[in-house]
């Protein structure tokens, strides 16, 4: 071969001139830790929390109000999201061993659940705004058939937004440099038939995610919750400070979880086709991996922030444990029973706030 | 409560065990910028092409060196010349091996 005739001096030059293909070493080592370990913790917490919400609604609390239906749908979206998470992590670490159907289904369902979860949180904020700020007016929109219709629209909309993701994610064997490919290696990534489709879709998909999956819900939540806080502070109610704190917690947790990831995603999308060094690009991928994990954590916090914070919901939930206790032990100590009932009584008294008589479950 | 804790620990342990069996990830590498040095045909073994149709975001010509790779701008004149030269050399090499095969089978 020609190379054998070449001297070493033919290849001597600065490291900065090398411009070798980047293999994202740092990001891979971060993914090795975050992928199996952190994501499994998020998955377990999310399954337990959202599972309990769904079980509570299924067996104890018949969905009575509009907010109940939204909370149930958020729990379903989050549960599906965390259920798909270990499968995605497993496949990414095992060269997509589950094949092309799993690739499309997992990536597609990830996108559907992301959009529906975020849009439903915006729906909850709008529902609370109507219940608290516009309390005097009667809105037909706050009835059960309407809320079911709105949830159906959200799911269909989320599905439509995910169609490009479903279509363009492909299971294929990439070209690997310097690897003797003894076993075939597959990835599940975007693949386009022509360059112009690649140019537009590579920007369009993350842009839609940023706009509809983050900024739209963020703006709706900020407007609605600001109006709610203003109304609550005007009201003469001894519970108002707690209500304000809950509203602030919902907004602060949402921003803390989702803002870092979306800022990184925005920067990445804006500079998508720019040239950069391997170190810089690797650092960007590490930032994306870490902030994405933080965003996933929101799925585990939703049951606490929305469902378990409500006294009514907690009471229904407590009844599950009471019944399980009864099944476990045939007898109940009368002293213990009376303590539990009095506790429920006290907490129900506490739950009386401006909105509860209005049929909203915005109880704290 | 104790059983749920045990379940949690069991689930975590099984995930850790599963992850231990999984190979390290190796995804496709991407060219992110171009070399500033001009290469000549005789320094190189071959080339491959990176386009933006898959996970990479810039188009590039990847020159193969002994045990290394270097990314070049496919719109540059010298890159196109080197690619043409490498194509030529590959054709010649293919012709030579074909001739060899032909002569050995006939002879």
Automatic annotation (TrEMBL), chain A:
Major localization listed first in the record, in broad terms: membrane
Membrane topology classification: Multi-pass membrane protein
Keyword list, A-Z: Cell membrane, G-protein coupled receptor, Glycoprotein, Membrane, Receptor, Transducer, Transmembrane, Transmembrane helix
Subcellular location: Cell membrane
Transmembrane segments: 37-60, 69-90, 110-129, 149-169, 210-233, 245-267, 294-311
PROSITE patterns tied to this protein: G_PROTEIN_RECEP_F1_1, G_PROTEIN_RECEP_F1_2
Location of the G-protein coupled receptors family 1 profile domain: 49-306
Any one Gene Ontology BP term: calcium-mediated signaling
GO cellular component, one term: external side of plasma membrane
GO molecular function, one term: C-C chemokine receptor activity
Superkingdom of the organism of origin: Eukaryota
PANTHER family: C-C CHEMOKINE RECEPTOR TYPE 6, CELL ADHESION MOLECULE
Similarity annotation: Belongs to the G-protein coupled receptor 1 family.
Protein name: Chemokine (C-C motif) receptor 6a
Species the sequence originates in: Echeneis naucrates
Automatic annotation (TrEMBL), chain B:
GO biological process entries: immune response
Residue ranges the record marks as coiled coil: none
Pfam families named in the record: IL8
A single GO cellular-component term on record: extracellular space
Keyword set includes Ribosomal protein: no
Domain Chemokine interleukin-8-like: 27-86
SUPFAM superfamilies to which the protein is assigned, alphabetical: Interleukin 8-like chemokines
Keywords from the named record: Cytokine, Signal
MF (Gene Ontology): chemokine activity
Domain of life: Eukaryota
Signal peptide: 1-27
PANTHER family: C-C MOTIF CHEMOKINE 20 (PTHR12015:SF108), SMALL INDUCIBLE CYTOKINE A (PTHR12015)
Protein name: C-C motif chemokine 20-like
UniProt source species: Echeneis naucrates (Live sharksucker)
